Structure formats: C-alpha cells, structure tokens
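User: I'm new to structure prediction. If I give you an amino acid sequence, what do you actually give back? Let's try with this one:
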Amino acid sequence: MKRISAKDNPLIKHINKLIKSSKYRAQSGEFVAEGVRICHDALLSGCEIDSLVISDYALNNYRETAFKLEQKARNSYIISDALFRKISDTINPQGVLCVIKTLDNPSLFDKIKCNGKFLALDNIQDPSNLGTILRTAEAVGIDGVILSADCCDIYSPKVVRGSMGAVFRISCCIVDTIAGFLNNNPDLVSYAAVVTPDAEKLTDIDFNNKTTCVVVGNEANGLKQATIDACASSFTIPMKGRAESLNASVAASIIMWEMIK
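Assistant: Good question. You get back a string of structure tokens that encode the predicted 3D arrangement of the chain. For your 261 residues, that looks like this:
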C-alpha cells in the first residue's frame, strides 16, 4: 500500500468531489462506498474497485477485510486516522473507503421478463428513502427498479449506505421520465400509487401472473399527472385513524410486499 499524507493529494481531492457532487460522480463514472460492511459487500458483489483507502486504525483492526480488498482493488492507499476523518461522510468513520466504478446496466429493461415485478420511482428526493427502498426491493425479491432522471442520485453516499449494499445487486435503470418509460413498454401492467380515497384498494389488486410495474411518487407532491395518466390504473393504500399519507419508503415497502406475497 502507498501512503498518502497530504490533504491536497489529487486522490483525496477526487474523493471529496465524489462524495459531494452527483454531477462529478456522473462525469467521472465513479462513486464512493464507505464502511467495512459496505466495502465488503462491494467486493462480494463483484464491483470494480478502482481505489481502496484505509486508515491506520482500520488496517490494524480489520486486517482480513483489508487484505481481501487490497487483492481486488486496482490501487491501495493508507492514510492517517485524522485525514480519513476529514474526507469521511460519516460521524464515526470505520476507516475503510472504496472508489468504485459505476454499474453499467444500459439495456437492463430492453426486454421485460415474463411475470416480473418492477417498482418505478418518480422524483424521489430523499437519499435515505431511496436507500431503504432499494434495500427492501432486494429483500422481498423485486425484479428491478426504474428511476426517473430527477430522482436523487443512486450513487449518493447516503443511498449507498442506506441500501446496505443492495445498490450493488438490485437491477436498476434510470430513464428520462417514468411516463415515457411506461408508454414505451405497453406490455407492463402499470399502477399509480395515489392517495385518492376513491381509488382501488391495494389489498384488492391481484399482482399474480402478469408483468407488473407500480409507480411511487415524490415525498411531498406525489406522482406527476403525466405519470398517473401513463399508468393503466391507480390504487391507494387503505389507512385507518387520521393518517392521510405514508413516508415514501414505508409506502413502497408495503406495496412491494403486496406485489410478491
């Protein structure tokens, strides 16, 4: 491993930009995964690791993981604990960070699989929500997630951490608009998740024996009207008490469970 001491080292600057800027991540084709478990998940998932950066503390405390990551990474570096804290995006860093090549799935949904279950996300903005949705999608067995281009960045450090590694494994596709995607895939039986009281109840829908896509909208504003119009039908999650709506990740989790049960 090579040692880096200066905070103005080109790699340190590169990592700082990757953490802070979605535009820079897109331009460079790389993103940052931080934490022992997340980096190990990236390794097990076969991600292309360009650089491993590890602190003195982590090298002494996570030797086995550090060795495995070093064997896989194209470049490996060690830095001081103080310097790692400066570049870390977490409050209590573990001292392990990987720079990873973005995952390339450009033709993922060119052919929708028979009887597949898909979730589409329209303008989801909270990285914590997106991370939780991806984690749940993997856990319940959703076949793929479609994201509109105006969703928050799937490679945001908060999304990567919140997904608990699911971002490395769940099939994802970014499209210009969900409405356009649905119009270009007429074989999908599509549903808009809405809060309209007269919409069909989620619990009354039969998701079996058909290729299905359910669309969940923005945390504050819900679905765009163009997206609702592009869906074959709409449903709502029945709620008791005085609750009017649910958190986007909670709503998506309930919907995905109903889709696959």
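You can read the tokens as a compact description of the fold. Here is one thing that stands out. The longest helix spans residues 127-140.
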